[in-house]
Amino acid sequence: MVSDTTLLLGLDGVSVVRVESPADGTRRVHLITADEAARACPSCGVFATRVKGAAVTRPRDLPYGERGLEFFWHKRR
To answer: Lower Cβ count inside 10 Å, N or C end of the chain?
Structure first.
């Protein structure tokens, strides 16, 4: 699946939900997993039927541009 996020960041299956610009000049980019196949168990392939929890991860190895970028990846479990 090729989306604008894939083209911009090189992250396939991820979508940008919103971008914030705090007073310190950095940019906060909020991401979600957009690939429906991510709901499937990697072992047996059965799809999850309910959300079991949520987590926010902070990928730190994605440098982009001169101003700082902070990534917040919102994931369902």
So the answer is: C
Look at residues 13, 8, 19 and name the one whose alpha carbon lies nearest to residue 32. Answer: 13
Q: End-to-end alpha-carbon separation of the chain, Å?
A: 21
**Alpha carbon distance 69, 77 (integer Å):** 25
> 10 near 31, Cβ under 8 Å?
no
SS3 content of the chain, % helix, strand, coil (to 5): 15, 35, 50
Of the candidates 1, 25, 70, 28, the one whose C-alpha atom is nearest the C-alpha of residue 15 is 1
Residue 11 CB neighbour total at 10 angstroms: 19
